[in-house]
Design goal:
The protein has eleven helices and 14 strands. By secondary structure, the chain is of the alpha/beta class. The protein has a domain of 211 residues: 3-Layer(aba) Sandwich (Rossmann fold). GO terms for molecular function: UDP-glucose 4-epimerase activity.
Amino acid sequence: MRRIAVIGAGFLGSALTAGAARRGWDATAISRSDPYDTQRADPGMGVLRVLDGDGVKRLPEALDHGVEAVVIAAGGHFPLPSAAAPAADAMGTLSLVIGLCEAVRARKPDTRVVFLSSAGAVYAPGDGLKSESDPGEPTSPYGMSRRVGEEYMAYYARVHGLSTLSLRCANIYGRLLPRSRGQGVVSAAFWSALTGAPFTLHGTGRQRRDFLHIDDFVAAVLDLLDGDPPATVNVGSGEGSSITDVLAAVEVATGSTITTTPGPNARTDTGQLVVDLSLLRKVVDFTPLDLAAGIERMARATAAGGLPDHQ
């Protein structure tokens, strides 16, 4: 049985933990909070546990349990909050990355360490697909901390021989996120459709981004852990969809009309940012849902589960 530890039980961490268990793995989430009730998720044929507390302090317990991979799905702020607290964002992300790598190096150095970075924060919008060899051009403190986190992963591989993997993740969607986060275009569109509140549209709405359903994200990450990937890999759909495409798909899936209100424009609210999946597809067989199918799946899940308490 494969054994994995996931640091953080937020949107991505909770989905990865539950997905690994359902694949038949032994999955442990380590987190100070459990907003998505990971501990009650169906483990399928696997094992699922949640350890409450600090990731660095509790990781040795998981390593002693025979964990083969540690996935860092926590640390720092989100892009908008990070702009108001860049130092706190950097310290939150980098102290976690360094602390976890040091724990692995001291306790079980053959454990793979995976860092969930962000394609949207590391790359800058531009023509063509963004490949892993393209230069990083962060435009927010969040993007800077993710990019430097990748460099620390490379450092621990180069100097200390750790097996590290940085995943540049596209815009992952699939469940309603707290509106207070100020992030998640698809989630924000669903909130507007379900509550009647206007959707704040930044820019023209024609800017194209890469959107990937959470189920495809989980499958890609777990498949990569079963393979031999290079040090940095994009994880996305490889297809661009405009913000107006997202709004239209959510309207169709929910049967609701979404009104918009203009929001402030930023230099990044333009152009295209879509990732190249060539490297990913050299390692795993990957055919993600298209946007309409993914949003329809999210609509069904949302209808079945109702609105969350954490709005």
